[in-house]
Amino acid sequence: MESNIILVVILGISIVGKATSVAISVAALLILKLLGLDKYIFPYLNDKGMFWGLVLLTAAILIPIAQGNVKAIDIKNNLVSFVGITALVLSFLTTYLSGVGLRYLTVQGHSDVMPSLILGSVAAAAFLGGVPVGPLITSGILALLVKMVKKS
To answer: So where does this one cross the membrane?
Structure first.
């Protein structure tokens, strides 16, 4: 019962904070619990959910390439530019940090920090126009760095 209350609070905060992806996720979990399907679906989501979520996210990010909107010459030119090199370095760093974070939350057993992470994501979505999605963090950091470099 306590878990339902926590999820409802997170749902409310995510709705108020306009973090739609978080709200949909929480609502789906609550519905699964209410239908009694949690004992069947939660173990699979717990085990494979992150993987399949990343697969879908990666596929969505690769759509411009799949549609032919990004050509090989564009990639080549980008890879040798300041923005491209910075993107590679930041992607390397954030991917490494994501792995460290995932191990911290799962292997090291600090899943209790998840509500704070969700709240931070929701607050950033509500007040800063952010999007609570992992790989997009890299492009956000990149955009800020590029903006700083262009100002100087």
So the answer is: 5-25, 50-70, 82-102, 117-137
